[in-house]
Amino acid sequence: MKKRCANILAISLLLGCTVAPPLVKDLQPSFDGGVQNSGFIGFTVDGSGIITPHARDRYNGLVQIYGTNFVPVLRVDAGITATPSNAFVIDAQHLVDFATMNRWRKNAR
Fold first, then answer.
1. SS (H, E, C) 45-68
2. What are the pLDDT digits (tens) for 18-43?
């Protein structure tokens, strides 16, 4: 009887425990257009980021999934402006939001 109670207790403890998977950590940038930069070209003088069209598409896709988790709610192309060189500038705050949403996606939030 004691062994059965111990087994029931062990099973109860196991079922009540939650095991969280480890957080995903980027070890290197992904390729974008044959270049390993994840679509991020660099920073401007004011701290904004310069991104590729593919990175802009990824940003807008993430906004559609996670945009309502921000206050104010993020909208498509929020914080993004086009440049004459087929690149886009994303302001510093939206660049941080982009990184946050990308982390959520990688960790299956």
1. CCCCEEECHHHHHHHHHHHHHHHH
2. 656 666 666 667 677 777 767 898 99
